[in-house]
Design brief:
This protein is mainly alpha-helical. Helices cover 55% and strands 6% of the residues. It has six domains: 78 residues, Orthogonal Bundle (Arc Repressor Mutant, subunit A), CATH 1.10.10; 65 residues, Arc Repressor Mutant, subunit A; 133 residues, no CATH class; 93 residues; 89 residues, Rossmann fold (3-Layer(aba) Sandwich), CATH 3.40.50.2300; 95 residues. Strands 6-5-7-8 form a four-stranded parallel sheet, sandwiched between helices. It has a two-stranded antiparallel ribbon with strand order 1-2. A two-stranded antiparallel ribbon has the order 3-4.
């Protein structure tokens, strides 16, 4: 017997589970009824019985396996090795089959041909073509019908190739990835003879040849040029280029590569592979084909402020889901680093393999939708990279942040001298030192009692003694000392140990961006200057020139003042690009400090700042 596609996925999920899982949980994962899950499990049990494997179950507990790791791996590999065409073809599988075969067709195909190949009626294929139309929309490719002749695809060559790449990567499994990578490194290994990518099409044979060629050009000392996902994309794109060129579909112009000697000298992997494979198929080395294979799709003019983009994405998702992701500075740091690497690379592979896509779409649909919407709003010059894989990788960062917000937190109202002015400094200092504290409001002595009654905090921290408070109160100095911080930590730990419930998450205090008058603006600027100064001293550490330490304080304050009042140093003539490049890692930390305080610093200001620091040629010294 053969399992359906959903049954195979369900069985894989059961194998991967470390503990039991209920039918209801499986139904939620696969978006079907509990009854449907039970029918699927009956088929799965029968399939397993033929292999002398038992699926254990217990009422109110669920289903689980009692297998060794070796047994699980063997079973998983058998499932992943199952021929795609031996699986019952549901409508989505038929849609993908139709599109892939049209992309590889030398001439038009008829509905009768597809019906014969898929062993269904022509009426079924006609019905499937409506889904094909819908599926093709997001790739800007259309399905054309010609009476009496058949059907074919129409669209720009780049779009057709991206569609083909998407379909190929969609079918990849972790086991496929392992086999392909192993074949790159060990061409004589058994795996190199059993690759299943594109099986049943002309692409399969061509890709087998590409993999063999990749193993020859991929010297060990070249491996650091790309990661495994990029090598995978390069190999797939090379095979796609061969398939399409053999059908007389070139990507653009017929201009030959003029810089071949340079690419050979640089031992450029995409070119070396392209040269080896194209010579076997007697294909010319076109420049545009190389650009496609190497994914050199980003023009120099395609620039977008990545930090500003990161801030906007976080704010948009926060607003959409009503979750204050914008308060998580670590999210900003991590997502900024991810997007900088993803969008700043020369080689941007659009359909990058991502094993998390399906799980994130199924388990976190609302988050996935919110991020997709935010990306569509904010990403302009990189719109072509926005696919499910790209969104899923971003979602992982938000999920980490969301899990942190779900942890037990002690809700705090902080009472200071005025309720204004130094709140930013206090909030940053306390929450950096005491990670289980969530400051939900600042109050002055005049409105403290009212705010405490309104917020109902777990703890009050105050520079004044306050009577009649129904929750614990800690009296601290105007700016919390080390002793104050230790006292707060002790009380917070006691509260968490005493009350083992998961405390409700309240929205953290967030000061309004609009400042009411010049006095408040000045006060805010001074506080930000001091916060940034302290951070920069820590970052620069021993590198800060001793003779300039006093001047450094004044420079930072004036620097913050210039940024706030939009009068930063002019870029022209004031930027040392070589110095900035050599100290890139150090400056990323500096820029992060400014971004945490809602300030954006330009390269001229960074160049000036480095004059106070002992810097080293070739990058800053970690020691």
């Amino acid at each position: 017997m053969q399992l359906s596609k959903r049954e195979i996925q369900m069985l894989l999920k059961l194998i991967e589970q470390e503990k039991s899982i209920t039918a209801k949980e499986l139904a939620d994962m696969f978006r079907v009824s509990v009854r449907t899950v039970k029918y699927d499990l009956d088929n799965i049990r029968y399939w397993l019985k033929l292999r002398n494997i038992e699926l254990h179950s217990q009422r109110n507990k669920g289903f689980w396996f009692e297998l060794s790791d070796v047994q699980k791996l063997t079973l998983k590999n058998e499932l992943l090795e199952t021929d795609r065409f031996d699986i019952y073809a549901d409508q989505q599988a038929r849609v993908e089959f139709i599109v892939m075969n049209l992309l590889l067709a030398e001439k038009m195909k008829t509905t009768a041909w597809f019906a014969s190949q898929l062993e269904v009626t022509q009426n079924t294929i006609v019905s499937d073509l409506e889904k094909v139309d819908s599926f093709l929309n997001k790739f800007t490719v259309t399905l054309e019908r010609q009476s009496g002749q058949g059907i074919f695809l129409n669209g720009r060559e780049k779009d057709c190739r991206l569609l083909m790449e998407y379909l190929l990567q969609l079918k990849l499994t972790e086991y496929d990835i392992y086999k392909i990578m192993n074949s790159f490194l060990n061409p004589l290994a058994e795996e190199s003879q059993s690759l299943s990518l594109g099986k049943g099409t002309d692409f399969h044979d061509i890709y087998q040849h590409v993999v063999r060629m990749m193993s020859q050009v991929l010297d060990p000392d070249l491996l650091n040029q790309f990661n495994y996902a990029e090598l995978l994309s390069i190999s797939i794109r090379t095979a796609i280029a061969v398939c399409r060129l053999r059908l007389n579909h070139s990507i653009a112009s017929f201009k030959l590569i003029q810089r071949q000697e340079t690419l050979i000298k640089n031992r450029d992997i995409p070119f070396l592979l392209m040269q080896a494979v194209f010579s076997q198929y007697e294909l010319p080395l076109f420049e545009d084909e190389y650009e496609f294979i190497s994914s050199n799709l980003i023009e120099e003019s395609d620039q977008q402020d990545t930090l500003q983009l990161t801030v906007k994405l976080i704010q948009d998702v926060s607003d959409e889901l009503n979750v204050p992701f914008y308060e998580d500075h670590q999210l900003l740091t991590n997502l900024f680093a991810h997007l900088s690497l993803r969008l700043g690379k020369k080689h941007v592979f659009i359909n990058e393999y991502n094993p998390f896509v399906e799980d994130i779409q199924n388990l976190h649909e609302e988050l996935f939708t919110a991020i997709t919407k935010a990306c569509q709003q904010e990403i302009a010059t990189f719109a072509h990279v926005m696919n499910d894989s790209f969104i899923a990788y971003i979602a992982l960062h938000f999920l980490v942040s969301f899990e942190k917000q779900k942890k037990e937190m002690i809700q705090v109202v902080y009472v200071c001298s005025t309720g204004l002015g130094v709140t930013n400094l206090i909030q940053q200092r306390v929450q950096e030192e005491v990670h289980s504290v969530n400051i939900i409001g600042f109050a002055s002595v005049l409105n403290a009692v009212e705010m405490i009654q309104e917020k109902k905090p777990d703890l009050v921290i105050s520079i004044f003694p306050i009577e009649g408070v129904q929750c614990p109160l800690i009296k601290v100095n105007a700016i919390p000392s080390k002793e104050d911080i230790e006292t707060i930590k002790t009380v917070v730990q006691h509260l968490l140990a005493k009350d083992n419930r998961r405390l409700n998450y309240s929205k953290p205090y967030r000061r309004e961006q609009r400042l009411e008058n010049s006095e408040e603006l000045s006060r805010e600027t001074i506080v930000k200057g001091y916060i940034i100064y302290e951070k920069l001293v820590t970052i620069f550490d021993q590198r800060l020139k001793k003779e300039y330490q006093d001047a450094f304080l004044l420079h930072v304050f004036l620097m913050v003042h210039r940024i706030v009042f939009q009068s930063q140093y002019h870029l022209e003539g004031n930027v040392n690009q070589e110095m900035l490049f050599e100290n890139n890692q150090l400056l990323l930390e500096v820029e992060q400090v400014f971004s945490e305080n809602d300030l954006s610093v330009n390269h001229a200001e960074l160049t000036a700042l480095l004059q106070y620091v002992d810097i080293y040629t070739g990058g800053y010294d970690e020691g």
